[in-house]
Amino acid sequence: MAATTSRFDIAAVVRRELAPRKRWQNFYGYLFLTPWLVGFLGLFLGPGLYSLYLSLTKYDVLSPPIFIGFDNFVKMFTNDPQFWPSILRTVYFAGVGVPLGVLGSMFLAILLNNKIRALPAYRTLFFMPTLVPIVASVVLWKWLLNDDFGIVNQTLRGLGIADPPGWFGDRRWAIPSLIMMGLWQGIGGTRMIIFLAGLQGIPEELYDAASIDGAGSWAKLWNVTLPMLTPTIFFNMILGIIGGLQTFTAAFVATEGGPGFATWFFSLHLYKQAFDYWNMGYAAALAWFFALIIVALTVWQMRLSSRWVFYYGG
């Protein structure tokens, strides 16, 4: 009994000795977190909650907000001629561009994962378009795809195509032009690097076992590489869809939503409402609707992932 009491006494003394040290550790931990907390509260949470309030008001910056309830959301669904078309254009852009970008980045990473001579040079070459600023990229592509003197249409005319596409100046080709530009700039960028990391994390013994079973290169790709890459594909798809739905800069610089609203994406519609028409309350309502759509799509993708994403050892 005495021995037990002694042990409890020792434990209590140890706790009393460690308590001040633990408090100081907690203090320093929160102290180092302070810059992030200030930024989160001041630049994200605070403005976000204020924009939620503004979404329920009529506000033009020049006069105080006037509370109007859910009128902005009613207008969004019933009295905005560009609301639904802008969503459809955005879905078209993301639905075509993101899968092409993910597949292109994946197969480019597979090619650049092979042991060949001058491999760092090839990786650098494919990564270089990512370093070009988006505005400079748009200027370059507008020159390349110019209907009159652009090198692409000059080449097509030289091949016998008398009436090549109008690209950025044609309603039918404006979004495909933006998709091509996005693929050129993004296919060798961050997604490719993430895929390279995923490829290098695949255990070599899986390929050795496949070789023993007589699998060739295509069989290894289909039965080993792609299943093991599904978590990386899933990650890139989520980031790609979020980024694709938020596309703004390329359309704003290249066409400003034209021709004939052909590239009037949802983010551009939100921007115009806020900074051209000064409908800040309505723009805040659009932003919150868009945020909820992105969150819902992300949750939906995560729930579907259990059907096709394979985690090795999980």
Q: Could you give the order of strands across the largest sheet? A: 1-2
Helix coverage percent of residues?
over 70%
Structural class: mainly alpha
| Count of individual beta strands | 2
Roughly how many Å is the radius of gyration?
27 Å
How does the major sheet shape up?
Answer: 2 strands, antiparallel
The named CATH superfamily? MetI-like
CA distance, first residue to last residue: 48 Å
DSSP summary: helix tally: 13
The CATH topology: MetI-like fold
Low-confidence blocks of residues: none
- Morphology call: globular
How would you portray this structure in words?
The chain has helices at residues 2-54, 71-78, 83-112, 119-131, 134-144, 151-158, 174-186, 190-200, 204-212, 217-245, 249-254, 266-276, 280-304; strands at residues 57-58, 66-67. Strands 1-2 form a two-stranded antiparallel ribbon. It has one domain: MetI-like (MetI-like fold), CATH 1.10.3720. 72% of the residues lie in helices and 1% in strands. It is globular, with a radius of gyration of 27 Å.
Question: What does the secondary structure layout of this molecule look like, with pairings?
Answer:
Blueprint: H1 2-54, E1 57-58, E2 66-67, H2 71-78, H3 83-112, H4 119-131, H5 134-144, H6 151-158, H7 174-186, H8 190-200, H9 204-212, H10 217-245, H11 249-254, H12 266-276, H13 280-304
Antiparallel strand pairs: 1-2
Helix pairs in contact: 1-13, 3-7, 3-8, 3-10, 8-10, 12-13
